[in-house]
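A quick word before the example. In earlier lectures we treated sequence and structure as two separate objects. From today on, think of them as two lines of the same record. Here is Putative chaperone protein DnaJ written that way.
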Amino acid sequence: MPSYYEILGVSSEATQDEIKKSFRNLALKYHPDKNRNSEESKQKFMSIVEAYEVLSDDQARKIYDNSTLQQRPGPTPRWTPPADFTTVYSYEEIKRRYRPSNIGGGMWDISDKASFGMWKATMVLFACLGAVVIYILLVD
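And the structure line, produced from the sequence above:
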């Protein structure tokens, strides 16, 4: 069974930011909403969430690191998803909450659904609106 660090593709010395970035990339790639017909993808997503839940919590990470260093024999405790799992780990929530930068929003935030062409069209529209305002001011 791969370690949580292997699942997220980070080293055991990874920072919280590296863990968060890796989680976001992998969760968006393997999310069940994106891969609807793949049971393997759903299981991979659940293991990514489990690894992130443990490694993102400093106390849980210390306990995990100590237990893997000691290589205790016997069954490992089972992870259970939080009660609001579908809300916290929905595809849209992962994109919103775990995005690389918390700066953004408003009309200048270009999401992955918007294109650069849409942004250019908006700028052309503002330029035309400005030209109409100037024309009205000059005519009157």
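Notice the following. The CA atoms of residues 54 and 60 lie 5 Å apart. We will return to this example when we discuss secondary structure assignment.
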